[in-house]
Amino acid sequence: MDGEKLLLLENAAKDVMSPPYAVSVEKRREAEAIFMDLKQTQRPYDACKFILENSSSDYVLFQAGSTVRDAVVREWEVLSGGERVGLRGYLLHYITSRPDLVSYVREQLVQTVALMVKRATLEEDRRALFDSVFTTVTQLLMTDNSKMRQLSCSLLSALLTEFSNSSGSSNIGMPIEFHVKCKISIQDEELLRILVFTVQFLRQYVSIDLSSLPPSHLSLLSNFLHLLSKILTWDFQIAKFSPVPLNISDVATVTLRPPRSYAATFLDPSFLELLFSLLGKMWCNEDLLHHLTQGLTQLASLTKPVLASVEEQQRYLSSFLSGLLGYISVRPDLTRQEVYGLSCILRRLATNFSPSLFSSLPPPQLSLLVSSLTQLTCLTAHKSATEEEGSEESLMYVESLDHYMEVFVSLLTEPHPLPPSLLAQPCIQVFTSYLKSKLVAPRGWQSPHREEEEIFELEEDDREAFSDQLRSIGCIARSIPHRSLPLLVQTIHQCTESCMEKLEVIRRDSLTLYSKQNDLDSTYEDLHWLVLISSFTLCDITRG
User: Fold this and answer.
1) Which one, of 357, 337, 333, 355, lies nearest residue 345 by Cα?
2) Domain ranges of the chain
3) Residue 101's closest CA among 135, 142, 35, 148?
4) In the beta sheet, which residues pair with residue 246?
5) Average pLDDT of adjacent 10-residue blocks, the chain of 544 residues
6) Which residues neighbour 490 within 8 Å (Cβ) at sequence distance 6 or greater?
């Protein structure tokens, strides 16, 4: 590679990046062929180093990085140990010494470094390999340059992506056994080390007013919270490894089951205190709140071998709820994202911990839990009815309501339900609120009517679309039959009388049905929901 060939590449880059009207199809193909020739070059490392050092074209720099990556994958076996170490060191030094490198070029090179670290994990001294990475990351975080601080997080995030065997991992042409061994090899030490490093970094924000931080600092905090979320969604279950990589969108379904070596971190009371303290500062920032609530949702699923005994499970659950309920108590006006995030966390807790563990909580804490859950469920029922139907806000509240009602049902379920005296009044409040959320004003909170075309364009029958909610409210209603059944009978009677009165007015005044269609639609809608709720209350088997 020399200056003349570099100029050829840069001119080709201009042709590739030019708009269609400025370059002929033939000329664009010739330019693309030049970059294809570069990618197919055997041992292109010196040429790519020359390009990286001398080119002023971001596109050419990106293509050089991409060429190095492809060549490393293709030629790994023929590279000597010294060549591998030297190339990895060069790329690491290159990205850390150029703070003004455009982001997509930097990320391409970061991914290549992460790929090379993974490829070398089973061949080199793993501890020394990661020591060099952590040394670089620590040095980057200590600089005053915001881009270099972001780079520190990018390096750790790229490593997690490569080792996680997710759909974001690079295809390097190795058998699944290789990926499994690489993933297992870092779980006990290196992954824990990244977790501890991340937690230590986050501690500095406890005493900082986040509203006073510049955008670059908030972006860095967001990236580290995302890094924490990636660690907590790591799939530690060896039996679940398969040739099909875990899709990134499926991480929320992974149960947190790290080895016992993580107990010192997860069972340290200051760990959960830190996260809930940060949560109290982030409610007004949706991006930060999303990453942190996702992490807390995963922590709500923590189980064996970290929580090895019933006593540890009880202490962890109590500590978790202490932070969660403390947060709810100081946030009287919850945003929709908070409502949704809290519903996911509580649902995970109810799924992961048995009712007997909830029953063993200190009475004041258990009472506060039920009170907070009741407040959240009633609030969400009201919001789901008053937001515009089909809007993003409405759908989020509907899903949140599903979650809260599931939690209620889990606390009512045998063999260890909570004391009836503790749940009776909350169940009455929840049942009444749910009933109002489905009925039209003045009996409920729904708008007076929906347009005819909206009614007929529903994609699913309400019985199917709201089956989870209906099963839950049926279970809740059966726990308080002395209040739910009379209320249903009374409301059905009122709706029936109202319907008869409206039909009588139409008959008496010789009016058309169309002239009173809106009033009738509202009444029909009320009767529709009353029949559904009554059916699911009277029958605990709703299919077949």
Assistant:
1) 337
2) 448-544
3) 148
4) 166
5) 86 90 87 92 94 94 96 94 95 94 95 95 90 93 92 96 75 84 92 96 93 92 96 78 48 81 94 96 92 96 93 96 96 92 96 91 95 96 87 90 94 78 94 95 80 49 88 94 96 91 77 63 90 92 59
6) none
